[in-house]
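Preliminary data (for renewal application), 2-(butylsulfanyl)adenosine complex.
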Amino acid sequence: MSIDLPVDELSLEDAKSELDRLHRLIEKADRAYYQDDAPDISDAEYDAARRRYMEIETRFPELRRADSLSERVGAAPVDGFAKVRHAVPMLSLGNAFDDADVADFVQRGRKFFERDKNLELAFTAEPKIDGLSASLRYENGIFVRGATRGDGTEGEDITENLKTIADVPKKLSGAGWPDVLEVRGEVYMTHADFAALKKRSAEEGGQDYVNPRNTAAGSLRQKDPSVTAKRNLKFFAYAWGQVSAPIADTQYEAVQRLGEWGFVINPLMIRTTSVEDLLGHYRSIEEQRATLGYDIDGVVYKLDRLDLQQRWGFVARAPRWAIAHKFPAEQATTILHKIDIQVGRTGTLTPVARLQPVTVGGVVVENATLHNEDYIAGRDSFGAEIREGYDIREGDTVIVQRAGDVIPQIVAVVPDKRPAQSKPFEFPHVCPECGSEAVREVNPKTGKLDARRRCTGELICPAQAVENLKHFVSRNALDIDGLGDKQIAAFHAEGRIREPADIFRLAEEDTRSLKKLKDQEGWGETSAKKLFAAIDARREPELDRFIFALGIRHVGESTAALFAKTFSNFEAFREMAFRAGKGDAEAYNTLLGIDGVGDTVVQSVTGFFANERNEKAIDALLAEVKPKDYVVSISADSAVAGKTVVFTGSLERMSRTEAKAMAERLGAKVSGSVSAKTDLVVAGPGAGSKLKQAESLGVEVISEDEWFERTGQA
Ligand code: IVH
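Predicted structure:
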């Protein structure tokens, strides 16, 4: 990081090399931001670089390069999507950084129009949404094409992706819209959707997401629109491009029109003639920033009258009649003392920076997220450099940023201040909570290494214990009556239950305990007895349920059933997985050879059984429970053998999975839909269209009880 001399003090020679340096920096940042959706420097640094670039060009016009960046916005579009030329360029905005800049802006306007007697200029003020801009073209009220901004002149055709956004009307409503209407606005992701996606992805071993803006950008550039559709992106309309007829006389009214035609417009837009009101609105928006639920990075002021906008005109890359008043960069410099590793409920190891407390934007920050080990090493999830490739080390001086209510991040390190003896951070390969191996999985869908490292101690890791115990007793697993999430959490907190085996020792432990369950709040003699009985009743669980209950990653109900069917008893399954984990290729291939079982599952299963602590926990558990052998005696002589059966409505005596397994055991085929080939429909309460379909086709319909009678299982 060079020490910036004021531009006035630069020699011609220094100015030239400085301009070249900034040119490279801005181009690189543009590419990172617009093409890779992975900014490599902070907005504040970028703005400062742009400003300094302009200052040098203004002070030394002779140094202006033929490829000057002052005329360019963003980066050229990436390959892959068709290019779209914008009929009206998509411009950028000049920036104001303080109240004085805003007053100057208004003053410039008043000066420009000073000859117009009695003209009082009105301006609008609205949030600057931190997403990415898009242009939506409507012809005769129908959405025909949508594009990204690209370099402002040419963007990418992302019509199909934009069609998946609920806020983008496919057809305009109301009346009075021009035949050709290009609506412009911002695509963004809410904090809630971002958090949900991040969580889901962590559970599924998908990629790590750093912030809503980049995620929205990545989502919009998906080749497969169904992926975009799942991201629940949103859109605010705030401007327009080509129009075949004027849509209003003022900015404010034009935006209201867009609202009437079906677009979502931001509710925080005002119109005023006074600078004080503009600044007042800015502060009010700033105060609401943390609770808006989406990221904004400033307030945009625009001259209200459209005829006057036209007269005031444009400078190279931005309109003269509008300006973005940026929020102060919520950044501060501090020291990173230590990197701690936290283990999440699903076993993810998350690095957290413990900082010398520092005030950032009025809030004391002591911790910041470091996302994952690649992030610490200076790489993004595609392996590209971030922070100019600098890694993050304990003892480093770092720049911390807080934006809205997003968790503080470390956006840069100050390499000059790095202690001489510092060493790269070594990300642990064992779980700090339980000592089990922590691994990075390969995502089966993308073939990429997961950014997160995960603890393999599913059964014994205290950080994961509560979640796993809840899973163990859940409805489709061991399904223990009266032992739900609430009870598990309480028993775990009291130390009564730490691992699955403890559940089955609960009654015995209770006889020895001084704090009897029946005396605890919420319990009594009867309820405690009932619970112990319910637990006892599950000492011989079905094999598929038992395997599912272990909570092995990637082993859901159906995969558990495949293992149960293939191996018939638990020991055989365990033995095979154990051998495979020890490097026995034949055993590994046996697992892989099961139809419906892939690499990810096999890796997860072998990893699970290779973990000694899991093994111990299973031994303890098997001392208490005896999973039933899986009998696949398909009877050819049952009343339903060879018949095609459909279950519909809610079943009360068995789960769907159980019903299916039972029918198959009895030689029936289970189908999901009713057709002429269906022989029998078992309908529970609430059965709907399938029941109707059966009746109209004359297919026999019976109740769940009748099913048990007929199959002789009652
Ligand atoms: S008006 C000709 N209004 O900020 C004026 N832009 O830095 C066009 N942005 O490219 C822009 N919120 O992506 C405008 N309320 C708002 C905005 C907004 C976000 C973005 C937009 C634009 C960038 C300029």
